Amino acid sequence: MRIILIAPPYPLQQAPSPPLGLCYVAAACLAQKAEVKILDFIVSPWSPEILRKEFEDFPPDVIGITAVTMTAPEALEIIRVARKIRPHTLCFMGGPHATFDAENLLNDTPELDLIVLGEGEATLAELVPRLQDPECWQDIAGLALRGKDGVVFTPERPLIQDLDTLPLPSRHLLPISRYQALGFPVSIITSRGCPNGCIFCLGRRMVGAKVRHRSADLVVNEIEGLLAMGFSYINIADDLFTANARRVEVFCEEIRKRGLIFSWSVFSRVNTINAHLLRLMKEAGCVSVSFGIESGCPDMLKRVKKGITLDQAREAVAACRETGMRAHASFMVGLPGETEESLRRTQEFQDELGIESGYHFLCPFPGTTVRENIKEYDMEILTSDWRLYDADSPVVRTEGVSPERMTAFVEDCYAPLHAEWKVIQERVAAGEGTEEEKLRVLGNRRMELIFAILSKDLLEEAGISSEEDPLAFLSRTISRLTGEEEGFCTFIMEDLVRKHLIVLAENRWIWADIPAVRGMQEDSGLKRSA
């Protein structure tokens, strides 16, 4: 059986990691002896013509796609186009949005055959061998599908208790070199589950309230494989990495024992961190800890069931300063009961903490407590256009704050940063910037160029000339296609070649596919240790 799995487009400006969940899905399908191909439309464009060509090269029996809420509309469009091209190919969908909006998706999208709910690996282990036998689907737990009288939900699938039984994510199916060109970190998980009940979050419902951990040696084996792939920055994407201090200690000990040198970052909570733990993490290579603080108003924190206090936030930030750990705080605008006073207190608390921070607008995603119990809050949901659920613009109003005021508040908070960035760019342009400022401007300029190349597949479009050095021709062509200065394009293209991220093959430039690493993944290097 041939299965194509699709990662739908996601804004490159949001610094996406290689799609970890989809790689776990691919591994689960491969474990059932399916042939699997991933189409990653995060770092490459899609169109009906591209989809048709991919299907000609690898005719699928089954097409699977994932989505978060903001990517769901385009994911469904891809499925509709796919079914026009291959009318009899089975199509399924998974991910958080599909899990909590399954009935609407199946009712509104006839091209979609079924939905894998929640944590999908164990469900796929049963489903893949029986995908061609729809009569059996209702006997498989963890699915939503159409029945004679409407959408049918099969029994709930128990969560996987031993995460070490999972095959490691099949990243070898991804266009890894494209992500490495961007320089974004690659994500892993060391656990699943979140014991907290924040009303705006899906974590607890998606992966359970009890935190289940992977063994430290298995996680570090995976890290060694990622380092062998050429990654040097890893983001630990656990909902709560510091849920168990002893497990963090064991993980850090394993890294130090093996002498691994790499940078990593985590998400934490201010009530689960201390200076001792931060020191151990820093010694093992951790460079950044992100905290979801959400509000500077104690009443708001209670209302959204955040389960933290402002004093705990102060103590966590102080511990980061004491240990030299880079800290980042995330705040949310538009929470239930938001007023001018709560916004003012949040901004004041942000200023008091004095660390890197950012704002997101509340998005009441399907499945969240705030959306399901919206009548209990002084809040109006303004739209269910999922494309707007990117947390970068307001989709709600409260009795005390309009969406226009929310937008103005965030713009005011960011104004000093934008002004500072403009001054830095002007100083660098005038040849007066510091070395650090020059590196920041250079990095931003490089990223914008790579964005342009990836979003339009310009590397493939560039071609070569029989009368000119291939690399020089490539640089000049990229300059023409992007409007970037030719010398800078030459600098970046030479860097990509030097890092073996692009190669000249059969008279054209292509992104490297790292065959040696793929071989290692398929043999023993990244397999679960016995």
TrEMBL record:
Residues 1-138 form the B12-binding domain. SMART domains: Elp3. InterPro entries: BchE-like, Cobalamin-bd, Elp3/MiaA/NifB-like_rSAM, Methyltransferase_Class_B, rSAM, rSAM_horseshoe, rSAM_sf. Pfam families: B12-binding, Radical_SAM. Residues 180-399 form the Radical SAM core domain. Transmembrane segments: none annotated. Keywords: Iron, Iron-sulfur, Metal-binding, Methyltransferase, S-adenosyl-L-methionine, Transferase. SUPFAM superfamilies: Radical SAM enzymes. The keyword Metal-binding applies. Its cofactor is [4Fe-4S] cluster. This is B12-binding domain-containing radical SAM protein. It comes from Desulfobotulus pelophilus.
